[in-house]
Amino acid sequence: MAAGPGPSAGQQYRPNAFVSLPAELDPDTYDSSPEKRRAEAERLAIRARLKRQYQLQINNPDAPAVVENPALLRWVYARTQNVYPTFRPTPKTSFLGAVCAIGPFLFWMAVFKMDRDHKEKLIKEGKYERPFSVF
């Protein structure tokens, strides 16, 4: 016989005997819907489980060489793989991207061209002696 899914993470969460219920989960602190409180309790329970798992790995006397922090892995994934929510292409970002990518090339092209034109002018006037170079 297959039983239904077990209780959710929010239902399993109970305040610790040594720590009071967080203000975010205390219904007396604010008036919010039960669904919102349930979702917050589930998120808090997930964070608590991840923290406990990490603490167990850190304090294990036979710990592996690399202890992975699951919360940190999730954060790194969100920052690198899920780029679109943190970046929106707008005219300003497109302009800044073009300036940062093409601007240095244009700047150095102008500097080298001006230097070359200046040397060429001095050579034509006979005021510049080219140093001997084999190459």
Structure commentary:
The structure is a single chain. With 135 residues, the protein is mainly alpha-helical. It folds into two domains: 22-87, no CATH class; 89-127. 56% of the residues lie in helices and 0% in strands. It is built from four helices and no strands. The longest helix has 35 residues, at 91-125. The mean pLDDT is 81. Complex I is composed of 45 different subunits.
Name the beta content range.
Answer: under 5%
Number of strands: 0
The total count of helices amounts to: 4
Regions with pLDDT < 50 over 5+ consecutive residues? none
Mean pLDDT: 81
Give a quick account of the main beta sheet: strands, pairing sense, barrel closure: none
Percentage of residues assigned to helices = 55-70%
Q: What spatial form do the alpha-carbon principal axes imply?
A: elongated
Return the domain count: 2
* Sheet/helix structural class: mainly alpha
Query: What is the ordering of alpha helices and beta strands?
Result: HHHH
Radius of gyration: 32 Å
Give the CA-CA distance, first to last residue. 87 Å
Membrane topology: Single-pass membrane protein
Protein name: NADH dehydrogenase [ubiquinone] 1 beta subcomplex subunit 4
Keywords: Electron transport, Membrane, Mitochondrion, Mitochondrion inner membrane, Respiratory chain, Transmembrane, Transmembrane helix, Transport
Transmembrane segments: 94-112
